[in-house]
Structure formats: C-alpha cells, structure tokens
Amino acid sequence: MTRFIIAPQWQGSVSSRAMLLVDGATAIAGDLPRSACTHVEVPLEAGESLGTAVRRLSSLQHTRRLLDEELASSDEHTLVVGGDCGVAVPAIARAGARHPGLVVVWCDAHGDLHTPETSPSGAFGGMALRSALGDGEPSLAGSGVTADRTVLVGARDLEQAEEDFRAASGMRHLFAESLADPDALVQAVGDAEAVYVHVDLDVLDPTEMTGVNMAVPFGAQAAQLVAAIARLRAEVPLAGASLTGFAPVTPDAAVDDLGTILRLVGALA
After folding, report:
1. How far does CA 26 lie from the centroid of its chain?
2. At what angle do helices 20-29 and 251-268 cross, to 10 degrees?
3. Domains of the chain: which residue ranges?
4. d(CA 129, CA 154)
5. Which residues contact 70 (CB under 8 A, 6 or more apart)?
6. Run of H or E residues at 224
7. Mean pLDDT (10-residue bins), the chain, 269 residues
8. CA 174 to CA 219: how far, in whole Å?
9. What CATH number was assigned to the domain covering residues 2-268?
10. pLDDT computed for residue 104 by the predictor
C-alpha cells in the first residue's frame, strides 16, 4: 500500500501565485484515501533568508525537518505530494540511502539545476534537483545521488547555467516527444537497481494541464508519460516518488485537472 505525504510547501516557488500550491496539494489530497495520507504542517509565514542567497530559507528548513521525520517513520512505498519541487529532495535522499544504485527520473519543464550562486531568483524550487545531487545550501541538500545517474525528462526551459551544468555532468536528457516510444524511458534509465520518479505537473503540455504557475509550451502528453512510467515500473523497482506543482486558480479549475493528476498518481502509487 502507498503512503501519501501531503506537503503543501509554497516557499520554494518563484511565482507571485506561489500560495496556490497550497490549494493544489489540498485538492489532490481530497481525492486520496484519507487513512493513507499524512499531512505535513508547512509554516504559513514566508520565512527569512538567514543571510544566504536562498529566499525563505528558515521556513524551508522547518519543512525539511518535518519531511525527514515522516520519511524515516515508515518503510512503506511513499508518494510525496507538494507543493513546490523542493519537497522531493529529502525523499530522494532517503531513497538514495536505501538503494546505492538509484537512478532519479526528474520530469519537469524546467531544469531546477541552479545553485544559490547562479539562481537569478533565489527560489529553492529552481535549485531542487541540483540540491538533490548534494550541491547548494547545505541545510537543504541531499546526498547519495549523482548527475550521471539522473534522467531529466521533458525539460525545455533551462537557463544557460543549468544547461552548462547538465552538459558537463553527464546527466541524461529525454525530450517530451521521445515519450511517444514507451521504451525510451527504460532505455534512458539503463541498469538501475531502483528508480525514484519525480513529476512536476508543468512537464505536461499546457493543453493538458492548466493549473500550473509556470507553463511552458510543447510539453509531454499525459497518456504518454503515464505509459512510460508504467513501462519503467515493469522493469525496475520504484523506490519512491513525488508529484508537485499543482496551482489551480479556482476550485472549478482544480476539478478540470484532477482527472489527469489522478492518472499520474495511479502510475506513481
């Protein structure tokens, strides 16, 4: 059985509509089995940077501690529901500690490969994958996962510093159109002991998912992404997963997107 950790963290987002992520996580949780859900009490306040280049760091640190505690409390298969992409970092760290041969599959329209030094915004969401690789702000960074065992899926809006790091690091990059072949993701993952799959909903094309804060054209088709994840799970054990980035502007808009989201939840759970 899958355990769902609901973590409506908004402080890592760069968007002026970041708090809509709270509504999005709550809407998803409302369609999940209540008995299987654990809710992390994310601070309401924005938080302070604490003299660093990471915006709202104090609140991000608080949520990280709570997530670490929840992840350590059970060995059940866990799907972390955000909130911004930063909630995936502690989950990846835990999966990497348990599976030394872990491969991370990061499905996102953006690279999330900045460090505090290269980020133009200071938003942790844009540093999340780089942090999972052990770089950046030490109090938020992960460990045990390397760039050459990471597959970036559907990314189409990388800034130059992110692209430079990706190219130099050996990180694999699978474009959205490649998902038309359901075996493409399995081939990109290669000889993994286990995989961790992260999905930011903006990886999908805007015609398929409207409730995101930073939509980018020419994204993945939901049916193809679901099929690719299912094919991957048939070949490699899933060590954990996360689903983030839902920011509906109204409750009615949330309903319009939830069918697609629940198909992804089914693939990840």
Report:
1. 17
2. 60
3. 2-268
4. 14
5. 5, 38, 40
6. helix 222-235
7. 96 96 98 97 97 98 98 96 98 96 97 98 98 97 93 98 97 97 96 96 97 97 98 97 97 95 98
8. 12
9. 3.40.800.10
10. 98
